[in-house]
Amino acid sequence: MAMRISELAAFSGQEATIRGWLVSLRKGGKIRFLVVRDGSGTVQAVVRQEDAPTEVWERCADLSQEASLEVRGTVRLDQRAQGGVELAVRDLIVISDAADFPISPKEHGVDFLMDNRHLWLRSRRQAAILRIRSQIELFLQVELGRRGFVRVDSPILTPSACEGTTTLFETDYFEQKAYLSQSGQLYNEAAAAALGRVYCFGPTFRAEKSKTRRHLVEFWMLEPEIAFASLDDVMDLEEDLISALVRHLLKEAADDLVVLERSPQALLAAAQGGFARITYDQAVEVAVQAGQPVTWGEDFGSPQETAIAAAFDRPVFVHRYPTACKAFYMQPDPERPEVCLSVDLLAPEGYGEIAGGGQRIHDFALLRERLAQHNLPEDAYRWYLDLRQWGSQPHAGFGLGIERTLSWLCGLDHVRETIPFPRLLTRLYP
Ligand code: 4AD
Ligand code: MG
Predict the structure, then answer these.
(1) Directed axis angle between helix 402-410 and helix 124-146, to 10°?
(2) Gap from CA of 186 to ligand 1 centroid (Å)
């Protein structure tokens, strides 16, 4: 196998072969500079007419951006070069040409880039986002594992709704109707009664006719669920996980954050933990003060979330929303049943809600009543009611939206850049 570019620095003075794609070619009289990337990094390969075989020199006269190449040469340490090394080329093979690659270094419109998303992914910026996405997914799972959480995968095809019937994707399941999962939460609750602490992680779907910079039709959610747990336990876990994640990225993704021009300064407060915790009632006051009035009982829209978050320098938990504006499974506050033990986590800088969760109803009769109030067919939820019949306990959990979290951490304008192939209201291609 060829060596990866990121490993070259350890081979100073030695011969190495790399395989990758041409980022750019710059030509001087007797010298040619090829910038090559392979996913692990980029390196400048230098072809000198006096050192390289004639056919190699000639081959480098006209290479197209994104041509795939195999390059052999001597590794030279060079403080000024990216990655600290350059490659003095001895041999070069064009594996495949890439004449007229559609995406050039000039500016392109978003629609054009989205139509060419399969090629756009190769840009430095998109690759940086995808690397950070991968780091987030891995880090959070390792952290949950360390805390004794077991990953339990939940189904995608389901017979019932979790987050309201208006955003369900319906599909034909032989002679029956099925829906694409909006959340693995209900199945997590069954798994938590088996294993105590669980999480699921996978794609979720919302047939949402929203065309905003925060909404995807298909997005990925990490959902921990804890048996014998309360609303406060959920806030504590969210805060611990997210502040640890921010610290991790500031250290391990520093180079990619530079590519994205995301200032570490913007994330320092979140890295310290100590997230603000306010009630829905207090949040309404903050929104009103900021000139974004809300009618008590309604969920917040983007402008209100932005105004509420702007009052704090780090993420803010808003808890105890009106029961009427939240999902059927939310546990009412025993002290004040018109509000429920729910919590949304709002990110700073206008990124809005990145996680939602809370304490679930554990009482059989109350859950049955709620299903009826929400016009949900009891048959499809029979198994979910069973969980309240045998060994029920107060339990709680949350769902963290990976794309909104990534959007905030990377400082992006729109969630469409946070997922390799976004599914949006008006986009299913590529
Ligand atoms: O607030 P939501 O709808 O909560 C649930 O689905 C719960 N059942 C989760 C749980 O308690 N286990 O969604 C949770 C998060 C949101 O905070 C947001 O980050 C993300 O999922 N999300 C979306 N992300 C992108 N596009 C959409 N259309 C999203 N809808 C929700
Ligand atoms: Mg929500």
Answers:
(1) 120
(2) 14
Average pLDDT over residues 39-59: 96
**Ligand nearest, relative to CA of residue 415:** 1
Q: From the CA of 20, how far away is ligand 1's center (Å)?
A: 38
Distance 378 CA to ligand 1 centre (A): 24
| Cα-based distances in Å from 332 to 251, 282, 320 | 41, 18, 9
Task: Specify whether the CB–CB gap between 29 and 57 falls below 8 A.
Answer: no
The candidate with the shortest Cα–Cα distance to 262, out of 274, 253, 273, is: 253
pLDDT tens-place string over residues 136-173: 999 999 999 999 999 999 999 999 999 999 999 999 99
- What is the number of the ligand 1 atom nearest to the C-alpha of 356? 1
Q: Are 191 and 397 in contact (CB under 8 A)?
A: no
- Position 83 scores a pLDDT of 82
Atom in ligand 1 nearest the alpha carbon of residue 402 = 19
Q: Could you give phi then psi for residue 247, rounded to 5 degrees?
A: -60, -45
Average pLDDT over the chain, rounded to an integer? 97
pLDDT at 49: 96
Task: Give 101 Cα–ligand 2 centroid separation in angstroms.
Answer: 41
Ligand 1 atom nearest the C-alpha of 404 is 19
The DSSP 8-state label assigned to residue 228 in this structure reads S
- What's the pLDDT score for residue 81? 86
> Which residue ranges have their beta carbon within 6 Å of ligand 1?
162-163, 183, 185, 206, 208, 215-216, 219, 221, 223, 353-357, 397-399, 401, 403-404, 415
All domains of the chain, ordered by start, with CATH? 5-96 (2.40.50.140), 117-418 (3.30.930.10)
Q: Kindly report, residue by residue over 255-264, the tens digit of the pLDDT.
A: 999 999 999 9
CB atoms within 10 A of CB 146: 8
Best residue among 204, 221, 318, 409 to mutate for probing ligand 1, ranked by most atoms within 8 Å of CB: 221
Q: Binning pLDDT at 50, 70 and 90, where does residue 1 land?
A: confident
